[in-house]
Structures are given as structure tokens and as C-alpha cells.
Design a protein that fits this description.
This protein has 319 residues and is of the alpha/beta class. It has 15 helices and eleven strands. It has two domains: 181 residues, P-loop containing nucleotide triphosphate hydrolases (Rossmann fold), CATH 3.40.50; 97 residues, Orthogonal Bundle (Helicase, Ruva Protein, domain 3), CATH 1.10.8.80.
Length: 319
Amino acid sequence: MSTDRLKDVLAQARREAGKVIIGQDPVIEKALIAIFTGNHALIEGVPGVAKTLLVRTLARVLGCDFARIQFTPDLMPADITGTNVFNLQRNEFSLIKGPVFTSFLLADEINRAPAKTQSALLQAMQERVVTIDRENHPLPPNFTVFATQNPIEYEGTYPLPEAQKDRFMLKITMQAPDRAEELTLAQRTMTKDAPETLLADGAVQPVIQPQDLQDLRQALATVLIREELIGYLVDIVRATRQRESVLVGAGPRATQSLIMASRACAAISARDFVTPDDIKGMALPVLEHRLILRPEFEIEGLTVPEVVQQILRQIAVPR
């Protein structure tokens, strides 16, 4: 498919999702970037800011299946992947598939489950395959994980291992709506225009078929990014490994993610070429969850967004 078709679909998807999700346009765009690049996203926000509704809405808009897993301390890997159960009538084992066999998977409060359970998603996220009893089972080609975290509640949680965080292309931060947006939400509550009601009543229409996503992803490769911008992008990622305040910097996968995200950002802006602003705009979502600061700098109040902004100011933008 052409980039024109890609830009049209992205615009339609934003418009349909905006019917339900009030005042979260940047969040919708970042979620679409993760989907259209074939990657996964980590969503962080306090309860009630429509994290689950966002994923359900995008699944409807893009014509894909949706499943949700509530991560808890007693959740087991087999609860995610599924297991083989002996069928007495057929005298054989049959596979009972878990919720991971879907297109859009919402891993709700993923850090509530221990590492053993979190690791059940590692193979699925990387290879889109699940191994059950030494047998590989392919997942749908559009398999995408949206994992949520609560940024203010850490009691009884298990931090995600670095290997798993690196598999998330973006960290999407969802803020509470401003007054005007919350007023709109309040006015629509308990009416036919309430977000949940709109979604349930079919007011949100699919803009494509699931099989079209593969072709649209290939169209991203035609979005032009100049050699000097690739060098600029690489320098940004490499700078995270060279700063005194950073204990663990971003790896090569972050470089790949930033290239793909910048191309998708350009397509969402209805352009077929990448600009430095695309790279700057996607740098923080791509890098934020991958960086670990040294404790002595954290104690002084330094944050990862501040470090990323310092890097962006110091590296010369190519002309």
C-alpha cells in the first residue's frame, strides 16, 4: 500500500478513537505508532484515565480481537499461555488456549505479578510464538501487548526486568484530563454519548480489516529519513550510555524503535519524510523506560525526562 493510504487510515483511526477517548490525542497517536510499527507499548497512568478503554477502542477501530489479563500475585504462566488438558472422550490431550492468543492484549497492572509470570510474555512479545509442552503455537500476526502500570502505587509490586522493558517500544504516559475535557466527560456521563455507551452501541466503526495492517506497516518503510537524521538519532541513543548520571543507557533496540517511531510520527502528521522534530518528539517515549539513573543523582531530584531533554539540547540538529 502507498503512504497516502497509510496517512488516510491513520487519520480515520484517530478520528474514530477520538469519539470515545476524550482529550487524549497525543496518547492515541503514540498507541497507533506502536500498533502500526508492529511493536508493544507500556501505558502508565493513575486509575480512571481510560487506559483499558483506549485499547478496547483501538481494537474496535482496527477490526482486531481484544483480550484482557488482570495481573495478580497468584497468576500463573499457564493462566496466560494456556495448557494441554486430557480429553477423556477422545483419549487425547487438547490445547486450551489462554488469553494471549489474541490480537490486542491488555496486560493490566503487569507489575502486580511475580517475574515468573511476567516472563510468560517474553517469548510472545519477541517472536509472536508461545511454547506449551515443548510445542510452538503461533500467535496472530497483529499480536500487540499494551501493559499498564500505576505510577503512584508500588506496594506489593514486582518491577519489570530490563529485558522485558526493552521489548516495549514506547512508554505512554496518560495524564488526568484538564478542566474542559473533564467537564465534557461529566456532561456525557449517563447519556447515549458516554464513552462506554458509544463503544457498546457500535458508534465506533472499523476503518480497516485486520489483514490490512500488515500491508500498511510495510508502507512505513517508504517514509524517507535522511542519512544525517539517522546519524542524529544514533547520537541521541548513544549519548544515554555516556552520561555520568545514567547507570544503564539505551541499547541498539532503542535505536531501531526510535527510527520506526519517527517514521510513524511523520505518517501521522501526513508527511512522507521525517523531520528532526519527529525524532525529538519520540525520543522521550522511546527512551524513558529504558534508562536507569544512578541513585546519587536520583536523590538530588534528577529525572529521566530531564536527562533526555539535556541530551536533545546538547546534540546539534542537522540542517
